[in-house]
Write a structure and sequence with these properties.
12 helices, single chain, 17 strands, 2 domains, Aminopeptidase, alpha+beta, four-stranded antiparallel sheet, globular, Alpha-Beta Plaits, about 35% helix
Length: about 425
């Protein structure tokens, strides 16, 4: 049977309604979402997603990392499935679309295929990957990393949040420890639809980002140890100020990233100051440096320079300094054949498009290690993400999901 024509589109209103309904679970304080991984809200969102999948005729499987796999059968029981999906967990002050569009867009693809009465040779699987964000349990993309063999399950289960709660115990607490062995599933291909989380597509007036590569990343958790002391009565020359050390390292991170332009970024994100009192000089600061580049040589050089700078600053100020890598992946090249299928689908549908490098890490970056993988991106307003003001339009969401629909149908092989 020939591939479906360009008149086949998803139900944009149904997709938008689903996005808005999911956003009611774990609402933020400013219109976004706080549905952090393995919280009660995460559990509630998972139940809603499962109900929707089962209503669409899919069967749900869950592995021991809590990854969810909803399967629409194909006509050939021996054919490898085509996967698509992303994540339902959010940042503490996250938006409505980061990750969620990729999961519910994939669900909408299946709903549309059902509406049209289409059959595919290959099964189609809609996936929700656990703990993509890494906001509560570092590192990011934790469960897809276990699936791809990057991390062991024991390592993942023993990760702790800022309150000392363990990943494995929290997964059990919300009731989403499945029985499947992580990584046992085999894939023909995996697609991930996602908002860009950057300003390029909107600035260029393009509806679709054809993702060819992903940036590599290092998260370096730096612990500086000084001496708690009174801010008013301690002479300046006698202070051992961990906060001052963090400030100087923060500036150095920025300078290092700027010195490696183009295609390099860096910043300090998460910060814990102890004792975090108005009139106490910080005696300990724990903070995470995030550096990224799509070029391996630049990524390696920046890590080395950040570590040298941190130790130099600490030595100058008399601080203790330890550095622990808590997140990493090398630059990613997505599958050229799948990239070409995404590009051709956008062209067939008449959507403006451009090749783009993903600035953020995604589950697709790990799954690319074990199966052919690529991504589809749509714009977001002002490039804003990881923020409750994150915004996309229904038209952008529909365009990205239309491209996902046609790309998945081509790979899953529509049959008579």
């Amino acid at each position: 049977m020939p591939a479906p024509g360009e008149n086949l589109r998803i139900n944009s209103a149904r997709l938008w309604d689903s996005l808005n309904e999911m956003a009611l679970i774990g609402p933020g304080v400013a219109g976004g979402c706080n549905r952090q991984t393995l919280t009660d809200a995460d559990g509630e969102g998972r139940h809603l997603f499962k109900r929707w999948c089962e209503a669409a005729g899919m069967t749900m499987g869950v592995d021991t990392m809590g990854n969810m796999f909803a399967t629409r059968p194909g006509t050939d029981p021996d054919a490898l499935p085509v996967y698509m999906g992303s994540h339902l967990d959010t940042q503490p002050t996250g938006g409505r679309y980061d990750g969620v569009l990729g999961v519910l867009g994939a669900l909408e693809v299946v709903r549309t295929i059902n509406d049209m009465g289409l059959k595919t040779k290959h099964p189609i699987v809609v996936t929700n990957w656990t703990n993509e964000e890494g906001a509560r349990f570092a590192p990011a993309m934790l469960a897809s990393g276990v699936f791809a063999g990057i991390h062991t399950q024991d390592y993942a289960y023993n990760r702790t949040d800022p309150e000392g709660k363990r990943f494995g115990e929290e997964l059990a607490r919300i009731g989403w420890v499945g029985d499947e062995v992580v990584g046992a599933r085999k894939m023909k291909a995996m697609f991930e639809l996602h908002i860009e989380q950057g300003p390029i597509l909107e600035a260029e007036g393009k509806s679709i980002g054809v993702v060819t590569h992903g940036q590599g990343l290092w998260w370096l958790e730096i612990t500086l140890t000084g001496k708690d002391a009174h801010t008013g009565s301690t002479p300046m020359a006698m202070r051992v100020n961990a906060g001052l050390g963090m400030a100087r390292i923060t500036e150095r991170v920025h300078q290092i990233a700027m010195s490696h332009q183009p295609n390099a970024v860096g910043a300090v994100g998460q910060v814990f100051v102890h004792p975090n009192s108005r009139n106490v000089i910080p005696g300990k600061v724990v903070f995470t440096v995030d550096i990224r580049s799509p070029e391996q040589a630049k990524l390696d050089a920046m890590r080395a320079e950040v570590e040298r700078a941190a130790h130099a600053v600490a030595a100058e100020l008399g601080l203790g300094c330890s550095i622990e890598p808590v997140g990493h992946f090398d630059p990613v090249t997505f599958d050229p054949e799948l990239v070409g299928i995404v590009r051709a689908s956008a062209e067939k549908l008449g959507y403006s498009h451009m090749d783009i490098v993903s600035g953020a890490g995604h589950d697709a970056c790990w799954i690319n290690r074990v199966a052919p993988t690529t991504m589809v991106m749509c714009p977001c307003v002002d490039g804003l993400s990881h923020n409750e003001a994150e915004e996309i339009s229904p038209e952008w969401a529909a365009a990205g999901t239309d491209v996902l629909l046609h790309a998945v149908l081509q790979v899953a092989e529509v049959v008579e």
